[in-house]
Design a protein that fits this description.
This is Methyltransferase type 11 domain-containing protein. InterPro entries: Erg6_SMT_methyltransf, Methyltransf_11, PiNMT-like, SAM-dependent_MTases_sf. Residues 141-150 are annotated as: SAM motif I. It holds the Pfam family Methyltransf_11. By secondary structure, the protein is an alpha/beta fold. The protein has one domain (75-358): 3-Layer(aba) Sandwich (Rossmann fold), CATH 3.40.50.150. 51% of the residues lie in helices and 14% in strands. The protein has 17 helices and 7 strands. The protein has helices at 2-11, 16-20, 22-30, 34-37, 48-51, 53-59, 61-71, 78-100, 117-132, 150-159, 171-183, 222-232, 258-271, 279-288, 300-314, 317-325, 328-345, and strands spanning 140-144, 163-168, 190-194, 207-213, 233-246, 292-298, 349-357. It has a 7-stranded mixed beta sheet, sandwiched between helices. Bound molecules: S-adenosyl-L-homocysteine.
Length: 369
C-alpha cells in the first residue's frame, strides 16, 4: 500500500532516470492513456459536461472522473473501491517498479540512518517473519494483496516453498508477477492472479503461511478479511498481517475524535481506503474466531525513516516542477502523503503487526466464518 503514497513522490522525483522518461510516465500515472480509461469507477455528473469542457481538455476524461471522485465526501462502496484500487495499481505499478523495485511496502530502519532502501524493504520481510516466530519452513504460502509478488518470491526462495500463490485486484500486477516469476526461475512455484481477498479462490486449509503485507488497509470488511485468512490457512498454519491501523481506543473511549476521523476520511479518498480499524480490533476478531498464539506489535518507529528519505529526495526545485506538471492524481497523492505523516506524528496512524496460528483440527471452533 505504500505504493499509493510513494508513487506520487516517485512520479515527481528528481532522479535523472525519472526525468529522462517523464512524459510517458506522466501519461501512465495520470491515466490519460486510453487503455486505463475503462478502469474509472465514477463518471462525472451530466451537469459537468458543458461547464467542464476546458478542464476536460486539460486533464482528459479519465482524470476528470478521478477529480470528481476525489472531491466527493461519501465513503466508496465495496464495488467502487475494488475498481478504484485495481485502476490505481494498474496505473502506478510500472512506475513504482522502475523507481523502487518489486517491493511495494515500507523498509526496516534499524539502524535508522540506513540508506539502502531496497535492502531495508527485503529486511522488513525477514524481520517480520522472525518476529512472527515461524518455527518450521512453510511449504506453501499465499500472498494476499501481493503487488507484483515481491514478498512471495522472496519467501518461496527463502524456504524453498513448493507453492506460492499471490492475489491482487490489479490485472497489471498479476501479469507482471507471473512475468517476474518466469524471469527469476520461480515459475514452477509462484503464480499470480486477479482475485478478491474477501472471496479467495482457494480451498479451506490450503496454506502453511498466510501473508498479508500492507494490503489489509484496503479491505472494506475487516471481519470477512480475517475470516478468509483463517479459512485458507492450514490447521497449525501461521497468519501474518502487517497493516496500517488507527490507534487503539483508550478505556472508555467509544470512537476516534471528530478531527481524527476527518483526517482519515481525507486519506481514504486519496488512497482508495475504507474505514480503518485498530490493531486491538484485529486481535479481537482473531480471538473471536478461535485463533491461537495471537501476538501484536507496533513498528511505526521502525518504518518512519523511509518517509523522511522519500521526502528529502523530492524536496528540490526539479521535483516541485515535476509535481506541478504531473497531473491531478499525483498531486492529490503527494498532498495526502503529508496527511499520512501528520497521522503518524500524532500517534493516530500505526504500522501494526499481528500474527496468530490457526488451531489444529481437533480444537477448531465449528464456525470460522
Ligand atoms: N503486499 C505487496 C503490495 C502492497 S500494495 C507488497 O508489499 O509489495 C496493496 C496490494 O493490495 C495491491 O496489490 C492491491 O491490488 C491489493 N489489494 C487491495 N485490496 C485487495 C482485495 N480486496 N483483494 C486482493 N488484493 C487487494
Amino acid at each position: 500500500m505504500i505504493l499509493t503514497l510513494a508513487s506520487a513522490i516517485a512520479a515527481a522525483s528528481v532522479t535523472e532516470a525519472f526525468v529522462a522518461v517523464a512524459p510517458e510516465r506522466k501519461a501512465f500515472l495520470t491515466g490519460s492513456a486510453t487503455k486505463f480509461a475503462r478502469l474509472d469507477v465514477v463518471s462525472p455528473p451530466a451537469s459537468w459536461s458543458s461547464s467542464s469542457s476546458s478542464l476536460s481538455m486539460k486533464y482528459g476524461s479519465a482524470t476528470l472522473s478521478r477529480v470528481v471522485d476525489s472531491i466527493r465526501s461519501k465513503e466508496r462502496s465495496r464495488e467502487e473501491l475494488k475498481v478504484g484500487i485495481a485502476g490505481f495499481y494498474d496505473r502506478s505499478s510500472k512506475l513504482w517498479e522502475e523507481v523502487w523495485g518489486e517491493h511495494m511496502h515500507h523498509g526496516y530502519y534499524v539502524p535508522e540512518n540506513r540508506t539502502d532502501h531496497v535492502q531495508a524493504q527485503i529486511d522488513l520481510i525477514d524481520e517480520v517473519l522472525a518476529w512472527s516466530g515461524i518455527d518450521s519452513p512453510p511449504s506453501s504460502v499465499v500472498d494476499v494483496g501481493c503487488g507484483v509478488g515481491g514478498s512471495s518470491r522472496h519467501i518461496a526462495r527463502k524456504y524453498g516453498c513448493e507453492r506460492a500463490e499471490g492475489i491482487t485486484l490489479s490485472p497489471y500486477q498479476a501479469a507482471r508477477g507471473n512475468e517476474l516469476a518466469v524471469e527469476t526461475g520461480l515459475a514452477d512455484a509462484c503464480t499470480y492472479r486477479v482475485a478478491d481477498a474477501l472471496e479467495m479462490p482457494f480451498d479451506d486449509d490450503a496454506f502453511d503461511l498466510v501473508w498479508s503485507l500492507e494490503s489489509g488497509e484496503h479491505m472494506p470488511e475487516k471481519t470477512k478479511f480475517v475470516g478468509e485468512l483463517l479459512r485458507v490457512a492450514a490447521p497449525g498454519g501461521r497468519i501474518i498481517i502487517v497493516t496500517w491501523c488507527h490507534r487503539d481506543l483508550e478505556e472508555g473511549e467509544k470512537d476516534l475524535t471528530k478531527k481524527e476521523k476527518k483526517l482519515l476520511a481525507k486519506i481514504n479518498r486519496a488512497y482508495y481506503l475504507p474505514p480503518w480499524c485498530s490493531v486491538a480490533d484485529y486481535v479481537t476478531m482473531l480471538e473471536e474466531r478461535g485463533a491461537k498464539d495471537i501476538r501484536r506489535d507496533d513498528w511505526s518507529h521502525i518504518i518512519a525513516p523511509f518517509w523522511k528519505a522519500v521526502i528529502k529526495s523530492s524536496l528540490n526545485f526539479k521535483s516541485v516542477v515535476g509535481l506541478a506538471k504531473s497531473g491531478f492524481s499525483t498531486q492529490r497523492g503527494a498532498y495526502a502523503m503529508f496527511l499520512m505523516l501528520r497521522g503518524f506524528n500524532k500517534g493516530l496512524i500505526k504500522f501494526g503487526l499481528i500474527t496468530c496460528t490457526k488451531p489444529e483440527l481437533e480444537s477448531s471452533p465449528e464456525a470460522m466464518d
